[in-house]
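Please fill in the sequence for the structure shown.

STRUCTURE ENCODING:
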């Protein structure tokens, strides 16, 4: 399976996306009639059977206790593989046009500590074609440990935001208005967009880590992010099988909010089914992202 690669820009392209020219008239009209991302949200809820996935995680951690894989790491890896297979999910709409990224990024927020006053840090994982779940785990563990253990905060997007937020409000409005104008035409400096979840392919929120269920989370008109997913708590549930028997399974609920202008409902539904398939066949996570795998039920 070919992984996303950098493409040469042409007139009409943006530095963060290629203008998709071969789309249907319906997509063109929707992008023109509904210019705001928040007006085009579709929300999907799903309960994933993670019984086999947890068994896979336990076995993996027994083999490599120094880098313990977690459910969240697996979902990050799953989303990368699905987006690479379902390329429409890597699209966004700006200035009434649909663009496609030439990289896959997954972002999330990490708390420096689990208390009300602790600051949050933004973390973005940029997928590479030869990465597997092992690489995803090492990256996330390393980034989160650095966020929570360092006393000197990194000079990243978080520190920039903190400095700008201290400016007088009239000046702050002028700056944010100018940045929004730059954002509209894809001209925001990379120093501001790098690591910003508003510009990622998928934005994840692991609410299960704070013992909360998955919730609906809105998209943002700022940036290019078109998919937002919240992950809830794990729990046991009695499942009625097709033969009438009852079996206790481990499940987790998720909620996905997406921009309906980048794909239709059938496309989104099929993508969610692939997430279910990966939970039932977690061994696929050990393969590089660019290795061809059929993610559809046989």
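FILLED IN BY: designer on duty
SEQUENCE:
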């Amino acid at each position: 399976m070919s992984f996303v690669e950098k493409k040469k820009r042409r007139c009409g392209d943006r530095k963060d996306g290629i203008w998709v020219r071969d789309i249907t008239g319906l997509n063109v009209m929707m992008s023109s009639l509904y210019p705001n991302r928040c007006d085009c949200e579709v929300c999907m809820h799903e309960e994933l059977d993670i019984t086999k996935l947890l068994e896979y995680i336990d076995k993996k951690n027994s083999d490599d206790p120094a880098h313990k894989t977690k459910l969240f790491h697996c979902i990050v890896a799953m989303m990368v593989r699905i987006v690479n297979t379902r390329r429409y999910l890597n699209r966004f709409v700006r200035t009434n046009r649909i663009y496609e990224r030439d990289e896959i990024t997954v972002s999330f927020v990490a708390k420096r500590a689990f208390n009300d006053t602790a600051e949050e840090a933004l973390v973005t994982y940029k997928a590479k074609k030869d990465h597997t779940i092992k690489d995803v785990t090492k990256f996330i563990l390393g980034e989160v440990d650095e966020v929570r253990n360092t006393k000197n905060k990194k000079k990243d997007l978080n520190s920039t935001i903190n400095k700008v937020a201290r400016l007088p409000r009239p000046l702050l409005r002028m700056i944010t208005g100018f940045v929004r104008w730059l954002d509209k035409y894809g001209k925001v400096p990379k120093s501001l967009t790098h690591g910003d979840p508003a510009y990622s392919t998928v934005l994840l929120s692991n609410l299960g880590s704070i013992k909360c269920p998955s919730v609906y989370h809105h998209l943002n008109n700022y940036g290019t992010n078109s998919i937002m997913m919240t992950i809830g708590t794990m729990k046991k549930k009695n499942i009625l099988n097709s033969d009438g028997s009852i079996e206790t399974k481990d499940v987790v609920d998720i909620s996905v909010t997406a921009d309906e202008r980048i794909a239709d409902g059938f496309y989104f539904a099929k993508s969610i089914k692939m997430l279910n398939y990966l939970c039932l066949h977690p061994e696929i996570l050990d393969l590089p992202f660019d290795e061809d795998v059929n993610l559809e039920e046989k």
